[in-house]
Amino acid sequence: MKKARTTYSVAFKHDAANLVLNKGYTIQEACNAVGVGYTAMSRWVTQLKQEHGGITPTSKAMTPEQKRIQELEAKIKQIEWENDILKKASALLMQDNIKQ
Question: Which of 19, 42, 76, 82 has the most CB atoms around it within 10 Å of its CB?
């Protein structure tokens, strides 16, 4: 029987990674303290380091700044999509007007 996959909140991941980055824990000590696997903790620490360095992650961001960047990028993508639809609709209307 498969074990159910545990999901952790972004806040939990942030706090766990901070044990390594700000509190001086080793990755293994942090794993033991919060009860997660080494691989997961390593990913979280790496992601948080990158976010502090200004790199926007592809997964859910841990820092408020990167969360805001992800929100703004999503809005830009939505606006660009809507803009493309309007351009196509406008082109169709122009074609109809020319034919008449």
Answer: 19
pLDDT one-digit tens code per residue, 14-44: 999 999 999 999 999 999 999 999 999 999 9
* CA count, 13 A, side-chain hemisphere, 32: 5
Choose among 24, 48, 44: nearest CA to 36: 44
Average pLDDT score over residue span 66-79: 96
Residue type, 64: P
* Those residues with Cβ within 8 angstroms of residue 45's Cβ, 6 or more apart along the chain or in another chain: 17, 20, 21, 27
Check residue 59 and report its DSSP letter: S
CB atoms within 10 A of CB 49: 13
One-letter amino acid for residue 41 of the chain: M
Beta strands in 1-100 (DSSP E): none
pTM metric for this prediction: 0.75
